[in-house]
């Protein structure tokens, strides 16, 4: 395996980097002074790409590597990989589902509690000494609220299960109704938003789900409604979200993802009904180790002609 060229697109987790380095001929794209020169010189050596949510494998990179057989994403989301091109060229693709479901679902609940109970603002109240002057204002209860989930896949279902433990009623929107659940189904996102108090985006980013949260959905959720996004920034029309929050047309938001990461809208920094996280849904030591192990296991399976563990293409 040491002779097989594997290209990492950007810095990821040091353990993954070490494990790849120990097994393969690892190239680090971000360390190359000229990406174009590097690709020209090494195009015939690279058989696999390891990408993530920042840099995956777009058409340009895939086309630059004539010997490419395999793309392993250190992420569950596949929106940074040109899947169609991979399919056309017979390039296999894997991601890291399941192992990160609990962490992302846990964090979605954390965001809901963070927004409703103003946990970050409460923390600031103690640290700034303001508690000595006054008690913190009253906040909003989570238990028993109605939760709408967009995307009832692995992560959406895990969020629903957790919210049920908070005695919440659950409804959802997805491409089609799921036969295995009694949660109320809405074929239309606006109807879902009208009928829930907390709306959680948990679907994959595709052409159809881009800006699935637009002005109409935000208005349907309303001034007491809360939006939680643990999907992708592009699920939300961000300028619309920002103006709705600034104008008080939306009750609050908990965001782990943004349209232009690592930037987040500065206009929101002063709002205590907004909790902003730096895209850390799956970023625990336990889950990162499991994701890295899965990337390695898929690469080894591919190059040993064994069945892939988590194939996408
Ligand atoms: O955003 C995280 C992932 O797709 O794994």
Automatic annotation (TrEMBL):
<comment type="similarity">
    <text>Belongs to the D-isomer specific 2-hydroxyacid dehydrogenase family.</text>
</comment>
<dbReference type="GO" id="GO:0016618">
    <property type="term" value="F:hydroxypyruvate reductase [NAD(P)H] activity"/>
</dbReference>
<dbReference type="InterPro" id="IPR050223">
    <property type="entry name" value="D-isomer_2-hydroxyacid_DH"/>
</dbReference>
<keyword id="KW-0521">NADP</keyword>
<feature type="domain" description="D-isomer specific 2-hydroxyacid dehydrogenase NAD-binding">
    <location>
        <begin position="109"/>
        <end position="281"/>
    </location>
</feature>
<dbReference type="Pfam" id="PF02826">
    <property type="entry name" value="2-Hacid_dh_C"/>
</dbReference>
<dbReference type="InterPro" id="IPR006139">
    <property type="entry name" value="D-isomer_2_OHA_DH_cat_dom"/>
</dbReference>
<dbReference type="Pfam" id="PF00389">
    <property type="entry name" value="2-Hacid_dh"/>
</dbReference>
<keyword id="KW-0520">NAD</keyword>
<dbReference type="GO" id="GO:0009853">
    <property type="term" value="P:photorespiration"/>
</dbReference>
<dbReference type="InterPro" id="IPR029752">
    <property type="entry name" value="D-isomer_DH_CS1"/>
</dbReference>
<dbReference type="GO" id="GO:0030267">
    <property type="term" value="F:glyoxylate reductase (NADPH) activity"/>
</dbReference>
<dbReference type="GO" id="GO:0051287">
    <property type="term" value="F:NAD binding"/>
</dbReference>
<dbReference type="InterPro" id="IPR006140">
    <property type="entry name" value="D-isomer_DH_NAD-bd"/>
</dbReference>
<protein>
    <recommendedName>
        <fullName>glyoxylate reductase (NADP(+))</fullName>
        <ecNumber>1.1.1.79</ecNumber>
    </recommendedName>
</protein>
<dbReference type="InterPro" id="IPR036291">
    <property type="entry name" value="NAD(P)-bd_dom_sf"/>
</dbReference>
<keyword id="KW-0560">Oxidoreductase</keyword>
<dbReference type="GO" id="GO:0005829">
    <property type="term" value="C:cytosol"/>
</dbReference>
<feature type="domain" description="D-isomer specific 2-hydroxyacid dehydrogenase catalytic">
    <location>
        <begin position="19"/>
        <end position="312"/>
    </location>
</feature>
């Amino acid at each position: 395996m040491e002779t097989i060229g594997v290209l990492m697109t950007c810095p990821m987790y040091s353990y993954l980097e070490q494990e790849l380095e120990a097994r393969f001929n690892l190239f680090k794209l971000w360390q190359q002074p000229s990406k174009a020169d590097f690709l020209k010189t090494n195009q015939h050596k690279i058989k696999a790409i390891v990408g993530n949510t920042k840099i995956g494998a777009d058409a340009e990179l895939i086309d630059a590597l004539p010997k490419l057989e395999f793309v392993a994403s250190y992420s569950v989301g596949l929106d940074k990989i040109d899947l169609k091109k991979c399919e056309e060229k017979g390039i296999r693709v894997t991601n890291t589902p399941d192992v990160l479901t609990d962490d992302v679902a846990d964090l979605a609940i954390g965001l809901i509690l963070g927004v409703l109970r103003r946990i970050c603002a409460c923390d600031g109240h103690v640290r700034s000494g303001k508690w000595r002057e006054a008690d913190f204002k009253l906040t909003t209860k989570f238990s028993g609220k109605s939760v709408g989930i967009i995307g009832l896949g692995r992560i959406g279902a895990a969020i629903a299960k957790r919210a049920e433990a908070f005695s919440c009623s659950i409804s959802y929107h997805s491409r089609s109704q799921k036969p295995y659940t009694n949660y109320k189904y809405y074929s239309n996102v606006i109807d879902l938003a009208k009928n829930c108090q907390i709306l959680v985006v948990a679907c994959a980013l595709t052409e159809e789900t881009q800006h699935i949260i637009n002005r109409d959905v935000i208005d349907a959720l309303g001034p007491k409604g809360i939006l939680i996004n643990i999907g992708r920034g592009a699920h939300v029309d961000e300028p619309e979200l920002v103006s709705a929050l600034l104008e008080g047309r939306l009750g609050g938001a908990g965001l782990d993802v943004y349209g232009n990461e690592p930037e987040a809208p500065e206009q929101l920094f002063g709002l205590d009904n907004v909790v902003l996280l730096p895209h850390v849904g799956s970023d625990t030591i336990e889950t990162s180790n499991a994701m890295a192990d899965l990337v390695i296991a898929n690469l080894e399976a591919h190059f040993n002609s064994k069945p892939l563990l988590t194939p996408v293409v």
